Write the structure tokens for this entry.
Amino acid sequence: MESNSNILKRVYLFFFVLVAFSLLIIGAAINIQFFKGDEVVAAVKTTSVKNRIFPAKRGDLYAKDGSLLATSLTYYNVGLDLTSSAINEDTLNRHISDLADSLAFLIGKRTSKEYYRGITQAFKDKVRWYQLSSALNYPDFQRLKTLPFINQGRLKSGLAYSKFTQRKKPFGVLAARTIGSRAPFGLEGAYNSYLSGTNGTQLQKRKPGVWIPVNNDNTKDPIDGADVYSTIDINIQEVAENALKDQLFYNKADHGCAVVMEVATGKIRAIANLSIDTATGEFFESRNYAVADSEEPGSTIKLASFMAVLEKEQIDLDKKNISIGHGIYKIYDRKVRDSHYYPKNTILSVREIFEKSSNVGTVKLVEEYYKQNPGEFIERLYSFGLQDKLNVDIIGENAPKIKSPSDKDWYGTTLAWTCHGYETQFTPLQMLAYYNAVANDGQLVKPIFIEKIINANKEVTEFQPQIIKSSICSEVTVKKLQELLKGVVTRGTAKKPFKGSLYEVAGKTGTAKINYAKNGKSKVEYRSSFAGYFPADNPRYTCIVVITNPRQNGFYGGGTAAPVFRKISDRVYALDKELRTELLAKNVKVNIDLKNGLENEYLVIAKELSIETDSRGGQEYAKAKVKSNKLKIKQIKTNTDKVPNVKGLTVKDALYLLEQKGLTVKVVGKGKVRKQSLAPGSKIIEGKQIEIILG
């Protein structure tokens, strides 16, 4: 048994060791608390472990031909962490001048001297983050890593960065509202579940300046989003937007929309929604009017009114006559008026009522069959599918509104006003779908915006047409309505804008008051529209154009909306080789009204239309005509020191020629050049103004 003294020595030793260890702990705690607190906290943060998310790459959005409408581009937020212990001060000093020059050239946000001073001071102050760029693209980021000093690597240079993606539209504002920018809007929102993909995760530990995997057991790889191919035809979209822009500017209108749809499939080939700032002339897309705006349609609804009458009784369109008097018809204390006053009592056939868009005639015709039972008329409209939403994929569609006799706001005049364009509300897309059903021999198809989806595994899902109603009315009624729609263009309110067309168009004009300017306190405002399809004998496309509040140069649908339709349909006809083939197969004599232009541009036209020409092309301005299916071109001589003759040229070509001569040009009107204030051949005085009058 050990002696008491040995035991006591061991106790004392243990006690002193314990006290020493305690003092070390207390000293370390004081050191951390008062001297190295920030350093320890930073170290703890740098060694944290967590599940980090790896975002999936968002899929790309394409037009039907593969043109890229929206894609995700990677950008880098780049800086220098100048607290890294691996940074060699001598190396930094040796390369700082070259680095500053390179950064100024590559990034360009600051001068070389500013980069030099900034990095030098940041190194002295031990700055954890000296920002170089907040949005460096991938190619420039790769170049950055090759710059002097930075090319040593992340640890030795302190290079630090984070990456992010931004959605970009290569075509800029073209179809921007329809494409959308984020969920839930536009195509981006409608097909977000396909485009977004599935994010991946990985358990990682943070070391100074870098995250490293803990293990591979908890890794979930991201699944990239699918690529979505829309139904948008970029060529038709472009002409629709340009035609709409021109008309909005010409009419000084508030806003407008234009939609082109394939008859058989319901595929939307173009959808343009534009507003104009009349003060600056700038265009923008603030709202998807075609999908979201539910408004009174005006006379385009008369197609449904005539359908209801014909479904009630198959009347003879030419023998059934209606007295419209002087074009004014009083119902209780309200008056239905035609667009103009008839000086004598007038009688029109049913066909003439439709072609002339007579409000009085339409109301009297509908009253003859439905005045005693207006509920039956409303039920007819419901049966045509006009009461139901289309449930399109793009968010924001408003439901149609058609009053019923059971509603509190049904009045004794509601039937009359409903049948000629008021007290009902439809979106332009809903009205287009209805006209498309008539073009499609009665079959109502859903407008669709998507052709196919290709996922990350290259699996393809194609989308087929969706039939809403197999038949909205009887076959005999559809055929009569198709006749009436053709008559509007050949003899009626849309005759002028379609004069000289190579193909037949069927459609209906519409003009609706959108305020009533009571007591003359404000000016009456209108909404003008044209809905129809082409070619009329074998419908391939339907189109609707709506222009709101045109302030200048007319307000009727035939003079504002129909010209936009014509520009779109002409372009579509030129682009669609099948339609041109049909024209040639019929051995139709083609008369082409050609504008003056560059000779080599005529060669492109000749090739597209398969017309012979003996011209070799060139950059000379010329005039041309087609004679005996041959394109004949004659150059327009322009003396270098004389005022050129620009009569017959487009405003674009005239401006080019005149401004090239040093003249200041003032443009008046719209169309081709009809007159010029300085006589052709007169001497040029540089800077002098020349006025060209278009028509």
